Amino acid sequence: MSSEPPSLGLGPLSRVRLDELLHEMLDRVGDVMASRERLRALLDAVVGIGSDLDLRSTLQRIVEAACALAGAKYGALGVIGSDRTELIDFITHGIDPATHAMIGDLPHGRGVLGLLITDPHPVRLPDITRHPSSYGFPANHPPMHSFLGVPVRTREQVYGNLYLAEKQGAAEFSEDDEEIVVALAAAAGVAIDNARLYAIAQRRERWLAAAAEITGVLLGEVHSNDALRLIARRAREVSGSGLAMVLLYDEANSRYTIEVADGADGLAGRSIPVDSVVATELGSEKYRFLENLAAVAEWPAAVPDGPALAAPLTVAQAMRGVLIVTQPHDRAADEEEAVLLSTFAGQAALALERARAQEEREQFVVLEDRERIARDLHDVVIQRLFATGMQLQGAVPHAARQEAVRRINAAVDDLDATIRDIRRSIFELRTPTGPSLRTELREAVDAAVTTLGFRPVLDTVGPVDSAIPDDIVPELMAVLREALSNVARHAQATSVRVTVHATGDEVSLRIEDDGVGADPAQARGGIVNMIDRAGDLGGEFEIGPGPGGNGTVVVWRAPISG
After folding, report:
1. What's the pLDDT at 1?
2. b or e along 464-475 (b: 16 or more beta carbons within 10 Å of the residue's beta carbon)?
3. Are strands 457-461 and 496-502 parallel, antiparallel or unpaired?
4. How far apart are CA 138 and CA 103, in angstroms?
5. Please, are residues 425 and 377 in contact by the beta-carbon 8 Å criterion?
6. 255 in Cβ contact with 289 (< 8 Å)
7. In the β-sheet with 72-80, what is the strand arrangement from edge to edge?
8. Fewer Cβ atoms within 10 Å of its own Cβ: the N or the C terminal residue of the chain?
9. Cβ atoms of residues 479 and 500 within 8 Å
10. What are φ and ψ of residue 265, in 5° steps?
11. Mean pLDDT, 10 residues at a time, over the chain (562 residues)?
12. Are the beta carbons of 275 and 291 closer than 8 angstroms?
């Protein structure tokens, strides 16, 4: 019997053809199985990149999945800026941190990488270094030849580009590699869009929470300083900024004043003049992107270089100030962030306006109460004291003893002094609340008690707070302090009287002591300075003995008008 297998009625050529068909079928089955595995890997990758809503993590997952699907050694995802001309972010895979540091600055989208920016279609090259648009690689960059680039779209807009290099196990990327990476890029666009929408929703939630806190402030008692600090702190926290400033606009003096600076010391209280550049950049009715905050105005040294967002503080179409938050250099200008900041600034402006209105109401209540007290003192207390003094003076002719007359006259003098003190208090009650010259004078006199050993008598005559200009006040206070210091060091006095008299034309300061006296011819540095201060203001300075030749009298005058 023959041991050969049955021929099934096929000749030798037919059997060869059958073997070829069987091999081809097995190859096709292998291709199908490989395609199936790649499709399964693609589905796994799509599920993987869509499982995280953090944008940065999503971008990193996309790059890693693309490298795994296409068998690439290196991968990157370049994010395109809002101007659509260059890359603003570059997420890589396959390059260790040490190599990253040696390469230096990441690419901005020139050369072959820029092809997908100008023409967003897939690019597949066997050797990137031979392309006419190739710029070459920077120093310390790993060598790369085979290249595959695919755009990533989100809602019909190119978000960025996937770049793959160095195909593993082959000389170049295949058409199948391109197709599967294009499919991944489509899914990546959806994942990126979801992550961006989630990030926007989170930002909106944070800004709404901050605005709600400001609205809560509106419902309770609020002071402008507390409101400004809260505004700056919340704006800095929510925006992730390194510095947040609230600038208030002083239209009368044409300047901005930095009321609050959260994130930097030494800025609060500083002013910047408003020139054409500042007026354009900060005086807009809409938010503005500032490319370099330090270049906008002559800021103090603590203001950093770099981009910033400025949102106006506007109430009833009136410019109250501006809220500025700095931005990291690697963060692109974000329209959504600017709109949210602008909305927050509107709420902040309302809080500021309400705080001002509340403080004005409180001040009106205080002034009204002080006016009532002043009226009662003038109409009731002074009149009674004056009547009592008149009665005492009428009793002098009927006094039989000289001692009684002396006591009556002393009581009348005390009543006159009391009336003067009450009238001085009435003046103080009818002056505006807050810092005043009368307060500064009292503080200077109180401070001299330590060195003198007694408290000087202080008299103020006339509208001291309202009539004396601001440029004279520091000169007058400096002369007062110097004169009291001279009395403490040289006069050996037991009493001092300080009198500040303001009229419509001039202000005079008189310091009188009962000490050993002073020789005007021996004037030293302190007296020379007082003479110079009077001369600078067009005034006069006198020093000489007191009444009866005892003690010393210093008189310093300065004209108020002109």
Report:
1. 47
2. bbebbeeebbeb
3. parallel
4. 7
5. yes
6. no
7. 87-93, 72-80, 157-167, 147-154, 123-125
8. N
9. no
10. -100, 150
11. 52 62 61 59 66 78 84 87 75 82 73 81 88 76 88 82 89 87 83 80 83 73 73 85 86 81 81 77 78 81 82 78 79 73 81 73 72 71 74 71 76 75 65 68 88 88 79 88 88 90 87 82 73 89 84 90 58
12. no
Is 0.70 surpassed by the pTM of this model? no
Phi, psi of 552 (to 5 degrees): -135, 145
pLDDT (0 to 100) of residue 305: 83
Length of the chain: 562
The pLDDT value recorded for residue 96 is: 81
Helix, coil or strand: residue 299: coil
Contact 147, 124 (CB under 8 A): yes
Cα(38)–Cα(49) distance, integer angstroms: 16
Question: Cβ neighbours of residue 183 under 8 Å, at least 6 residues apart?
Answer: 42
Alpha helix ranges (H) inside 220-275: 224-239
Question: Which phi-psi region, left, alpha or beta, contains residue 124 (left: φ > 0; alpha: ψ -120 to 50)?
Answer: beta
Radius of gyration (C-alpha) of the chain in whole angstroms: 43
Please tell me the distance from the alpha carbon of residue 530 to that of residue 553, in angstroms, as a whole number.
14
Spatial contact of 313 and 322, defined as CB atoms under 8 Å apart: yes
Query: Tokens in use for 555?
Result: 């008189």
Which runs of E-coded beta strand occur in 381-518? 457-461, 496-502, 506-513
pLDDT at position 415: 74
Q: Which residues does 408 contact at the CB level (< 8 Å), separation at least 6?
A: 392, 393, 395, 396, 399
Answer yes or no: are the C-beta atoms of 347 and 330 closer than 8 Å. Answer: no
Distances in whole angstroms, Cα of residue 322 to Cα of each of 65, 233, 257, 302, 306: 46, 15, 10, 18, 18
Closest to 62 (Cα-Cα) out of 43, 45, 44, 80? 45
List the one residue out of 110, 147, 151 whose CA is nearest residue 130. Answer: 147
Q: Strand 244-250's sheet: what is its strand order? A: 271-273, 255-262, 244-250, 318-326, 308-315, 288-290
